[in-house]
């Protein structure tokens, strides 16, 4: 069962300890309620993939509960550790700064259990996980067939290193599909999604599909999808959300984090 802390009587109270360290999925958060629903769907999918694991959503902004609240509730319930998985596809500002800061704030507020922080779900160490490619392929197949070129539409970031990992994912996805695939962005960096679709069509592509490099719906995804359709894309995939390949990817990140030293330790 996907769990969240009961905040009505302070931290904790509703959670019970299990022999396996719980997993905390940390999403950015959004005013769009569909985003939190997508995070909960992924949490359920992870628990289906491994029923021994309990999964707890948390959010950096806009939506409760915050990571520190979940971690304190887990400690109060008797858990002796936790693994935090950033629901991010690039290691940009949120991954490099906000996630560590959230855990540090929990320790500053008295947390006394060790917390491991996994890598993001996007490419890590120059490797694009097959689970990520499988999730993208699943969603694109549901949007149509017979594509002759693909745009990998992402939210966008000003971080050049983060954009390089999106390019890496686009190249790997194109290789897996046997099709040209280019990265494009809804904000912050060129090329825009509509521009990328138009360029592929100008080069002769007639059935451009758009894969969504998004974990959840929201304003930027909606803008990217609308721009793609206006530019002539014949199919636009839905966000990854609770795709079983992404659930397995989360578990793989948890396993990898378990082989590493604890990222942050209670003092």
From TrEMBL:
Pfam families assigned to the protein according to its UniProt record, in alphabetical order: CbiX
Classification via InterPro entries: CbiX-like, Sirohydro_Cobaltochel/CbiX
Superkingdom of origin: Bacteria
Keywords, in A-Z order: Lyase, Metal-binding
Gene Ontology MF terms in the entry: lyase activity; metal ion binding
PANTHER family, sorted: FERROCHELATASE CHE1, SIROHYDROCHLORIN FERROCHELATASE, CHLOROPLASTIC
Name the record gives this protein: Cobalamin biosynthesis protein
Species in which this protein is naturally found: Polymorphospora rubra
């Amino acid at each position: 069962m996907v769990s969240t802390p009961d905040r009505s009587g302070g931290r904790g109270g509703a959670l019970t300890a299990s022999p396996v360290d719980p997993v905390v999925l940390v999403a950015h958060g959004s005013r769009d309620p569909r985003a939190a629903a997508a995070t909960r769907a992924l949490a359920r999918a992870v628990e289906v993939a491994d029923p021994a694991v309990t999964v707890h959503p948390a959010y950096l902004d806009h939506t409760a509960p915050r990571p520190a609240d979940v971690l304190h509730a887990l400690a109060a319930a008797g858990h002796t550790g936790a693994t935090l998985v950033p629901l991010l596809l690039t290691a940009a500002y949120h991954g490099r700064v906000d996630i560590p800061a959230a855990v540090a704030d929990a320790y500053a507020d008295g947390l006394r259990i060790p917390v491991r922080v996994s890598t993001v779900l996007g490419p890590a160490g120059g490797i694009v996980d097959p689970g990520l490619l499988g999730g993208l392929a699943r969603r694109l197949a549901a949007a149509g067939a017979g594509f002759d070129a693909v745009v990998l539409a992402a939210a966008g970031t000003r971080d050049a290193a983060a954009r390089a990992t999106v390019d890496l994912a686009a190249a790997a996805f194109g290789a897996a599909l046997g099709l040209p695939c280019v990265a494009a962005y809804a904000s912050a960096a060129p090329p825009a999604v509509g521009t990328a679709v138009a360029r592929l069509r100008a080069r002769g592509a007639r059935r451009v599909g758009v894969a969504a490099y998004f974990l959840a719906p929201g304003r930027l995804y909606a803008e990217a999808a609308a721009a793609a359709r206006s530019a002539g894309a014949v199919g636009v995939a839905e966000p990854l959300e609770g795709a079983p390949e992404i659930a397995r990817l989360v578990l793989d990140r948890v396993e990898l984090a378990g082989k590493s030293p604890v990222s942050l330790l209670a003092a």
